[in-house]
Amino acid sequence: MEDTFESACKHGENIKKFQSEYNEETIVGMANILKILGEPSRMKIVLALSYGELCVFHIVEAVKSNQSAVSHQLRILKDNHIIKSRRDGQNIVYYLYDDHIMKILNLVKEHVEE
Amino acid sequence: MEDTFESACKHGENIKKFQSEYNEETIVGMANILKILGEPSRMKIVLALSYGELCVFHIVEAVKSNQSAVSHQLRILKDNHIIKSRRDGQNIVYYLYDDHIMKILNLVKEHVEE
DNA sequence: TGTAGATATGAACAAATATTCATATATCGG
DNA sequence: CCGATATATGAATATTTGTTCATATCTACA
Fold this sequence. Notes:
Two copies of one chain form a homodimer.
Chain A: H1 14-21, H2 24-37, H3 40-49, E1 54-55, H4 56-63, H5 67-79, E2 83-88, E3 91-96, H6 100-112
Antiparallel strand pairs in A: 1-3, 2-3
The first copy, chain A, binds a DNA duplex (30 and 30 nucleotides) through residues 5, 7-8, 39, 41, 55-57, 65-75, 87, 89-92.
């Protein structure tokens, strides 16, 4: 924050480009969605749902967790518009909100697998 | 974990596909990189560097933070191979490790901006 | 309508993590 | 070599967050 100081290196011109392209709101939004996905249990849920909708019991089975933990994570994913749900008899079926998320995750998978 | 129970819904076939395509290591790796990027201050640093290398002072300026906080985040980004650094006189210049990360972030930006 | 199955919720707890403050290290110019 | 600039590091703190446990809600069905 100390703007009275002038650094010796001369690479600062690009800062303005960055700041005009990305406002705080955009950055926080971008970070938020990655934070939501950046958790193994939630990541598993999303990846499992990418093969088709699942009821809670099957999600629990797929991600090898327990009902309560999964339910809490489903809520977070739903609140952040990554998944949606519908009732099907006694079950609540979850499915991906759109396929944009999977485009991102496919790139991430490529990146991890080098 | 209770595998004695059989759910009424019939959408479980896809679970095997998911589990064979993604092993634990891949998922944790994917989640980890998103967790690293899923933080506004680190996200800002990476986005700022996408316009070209910057020394620490200019990064501090770009992300409107302070030297110590930035330095800690730079370490995390470096340890996770998202950025690299080189010395240039008194300065340490940081730059992106590769352009794969920006492909991901460009998709994320699209997603956030709808 | 009462019971069992399916899912959600809330509080409590523990673990992870971002920030701050103080200080250490490293480089350069004189 | 010394002082100033530039960056890194470590400890302490405070906040966030994931999980667990217990319980509540809602639906189907007998």
